[in-house]
Design a protein that fits this description.
The chain is of the alpha/beta class. The chain has 9 helices and 9 strands.
């Protein structure tokens, strides 16, 4: 199995790359810094997997085009999984103090346009090769407007665009190519490790699990979605203070869940629902046929920790 993880030299991307390698994937490492990219590639190689490195700035459409050619060549002409994780850092160091318009443009160039261009080009190649999967990274606050700061505003604009595009792309590429979105909440990355203690504690208390997430938590969600099971899902919000999830998929087991719930069974008694039985109550099923890829909404139980 072969995967490309953009922005895989640190934080969430690094955790995803290493988790995939532990599960037997060959992982292409992409970033802009040769030293950090080589370090992650070395960690993957020590796990016994191939780890080619490609440097590219995903704000540049020309470099994105070149990345496509180089990635397919480096992985033997077939890519099973492409993860668009790369994002611009406008929250730490001197970047935090740049003008609003400059920070917004950087996010739109990398997080939005970079993700859209990569997804579009990868999708066409995966259709041509007969299959594959794309996972994009959003943000749990993007569709709720939960953060009203200037940083929250510009991140919401970029990441909401990623989610909306990905849902449309999922329909356009199905059934040959699966498209998923994970939307992490408050994760202890470079920014999370530098916030003041008062903000850190406030956000922790707002989180259902009463803790900040880790890059490994996000990587675990990626591993679930990357499984070969015939599931297509768009996770709108995962983690943070959000309590909402939307899934649409091709999973025959979900029909059994819907039928038994309609008959009055409790969700905890439905092992065929997999991960969702442990974490979510169903708000609305309607007349769903999970074999046709229709949509349903889930909410955390009110007594969920």
């Amino acid at each position: 199995m072969t995967a490309v993880v953009t922005g895989s030299t640190s934080g969430i991307g690094r955790a995803i790359a290493l988790s995939l390698a532990r599960e037997g994937w060959d992982v292409l490492v992409q970033g802009r810094n040769v030293e950090t990219a080589a370090a992650v590639a070395g960690e993957i190689a020590r796990l016994g997997r191939r780890a080619p490195v490609i440097l590219a700035d995903l704000a540049d459409p020309v470099q994105i085009e070149r990345l496509m050619d180089d990635a397919w060549a480096a992985l033997g002409g077939y890519v099973d999984l492409w993860i668009n994780n790369a994002g611009a850092d406008v929250l730490t160091g001197s970047a935090l103090h740049r003008p609003f318009a400059e920070r917004l443009q950087r996010l739109l160039d990398v997080d939005l346009r970079g993700t859209l261009l990569c997804s579009h080009l990868v999708g066409q190649r995966m259709l041509a090769q007969g299959g594959g999967q794309i996972i994009n990274v959003g943000w749990d606050q993007a569709l709720t407007g939960g953060v009203g700061t200037e940083s929250g505003q510009i991140f919401a604009a970029a990441k909401a665009g990623v989610t909306g595009f990905s849902k449309a792309l999922a329909r356009g590429l199905a059934p040959s190519v699966r498209v998923n979105v994970i939307a992490p909440g408050w994760i202890e990355t470079a920014w999370g490790e530098t916030v003041n203690r008062e903000l850190y504690e406030r956000l922790r208390r707002q989180t259902p699990l009463q803790r900040w997430g880790t890059p490994d938590d996000v990587a675990a969600a990626v591993l679930y979605l990357a499984s070969p099971a015939d599931l297509m899902a768009v996770i709108r919000e995962l983690g943070g203070e959000s309590r909402h999830l939307m899934v649409f998929g091709h999973n025959p087991g979900m029909n059994e869940c819907a039928n038994r719930l309609s008959a009055g069974d409790h969700i905890d008694n439905l092992p065929t629902c997999g991960v969702f039985t442990a974490q979510f109550d169903i708000r609305s099923w309607g007349d769903l046929d999970w074999n046709s890829g229709q949509e349903a909404e889930f909410d955390y139980p009110k007594n969920h920790p």
